[in-house]
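Lab notes, practical 5.
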Amino acid sequence: MDQQANRTRERRHWAKWFVIASRFASIQVFTQGLGFVVGIFIIRKLTKPEYAVYTLANTMLASILILADSGISSAMTSIGGRVWQDAKALGQLVASAMQWRRYLAITTLFLVTPVMVWLLARNGATPVQLFIITILVLIGCAFEFLTRIYAVVLRLRSERGKLQVNAAIGVLVRGVLLLALWMRLNAVAALLGAVAGCGLQFILVWRWTRDVRDTSAHADPVMVSEIGGIIKKQAPNILFYCIQAQVTVWIISVFGHSSGVAEVGALGRLVAILAVVNTTLNEVIFPAFARIQNPGLVRTRYTELLALYAVGSAAFVILFAQFPRAFLWLLGPKYMSLEREGMLMAINVTMTAFAGLVWGLNTTRAWILYPWPQIVLVFGAQLVMVRTMNLSTVHGALIFSIISTFIGILWGCIVSCDGMLKEARKHKAMAVAA
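Output from the prediction step:
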């Protein structure tokens, strides 16, 4: 009887979360689908040299944003869970986060901008392109720095609908501008569309949050200190994952040529639709996983999520293997010869997404181990590959990334096991004490 009741509760649980996730994902499918179409449009329209420059600019923009965050969003979420209903405290939290964000942004821009200029110049950007793209990346970063701070406020208040509308509007603005610039579309124009979308997104989140937070509040020293503590703990991992997340583009841009950069960027767009899954995990699944208190249920849900993700990833890779030319047709005739590389990209991206799932589940439960063993293992393997493999080709760069990601997944699972064991011991100790 108890087993039947447990099975019934289990079915109801999965039915409930399937409905919630499906409702959230349906809007994401529209937004990401539109973004996918815009991305394909840019690939087919730009020449390989132009698309290589565009890919590098986007890669550097993403790297700057990750490094300038360094755990601020996670810290805001942790602290905000206690104060989200207090407008003054919420205003203090935003001001405290802004204080750290300004410091990290200035440091990151100072360190990363010279690298961006060098990589762009090495891969064929003209002096005029270098100047304009650098300015656009800096403006885009400024908008995104602020948007991500205010987005946490909306997330704390469960304003998922506004976050989804904001994302959709950003993509729409980008698409409209690209159509307007159809006849003169190049890397600069494509990047301008993305920056314009970021600007409008910032305006919207600022307006949506100003009534629920005290806009005159100043930074709180206690919050500033707490945010700093979280940043110090997460900084090594974030720096490591920032490098690994973009490692394929980094490797091919340093050891290869602009054509290879364009091919890696274009193949990456084919699997961009997986962003729907990642966004659903961040907004729906991870918060629910964080609320589970029973260690046994934590293990069950963890195993189920990894199994479901693995099956879905395998299905995607098999689908690509069966119809590679249908996928490559989307990219246009310039990329039709990349069947083998396309298969490797499908494997690489699904493995990277799987690593992101493990990392997200670990951070959600605050399962953190000393990161240096993983860093030493991955960088040691990469040093061997740099000395023994041909990394000037897309094929070599993708193999490099796949091996690096596999080591990261193994370490992430070790961290998960350690975290679950510690939670089980703590739960048992509390039960004995009670």
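Observations recorded by the TA: DSSP finds 16 helices and no strands in the chain. The first helix runs from residue 2 to 45.
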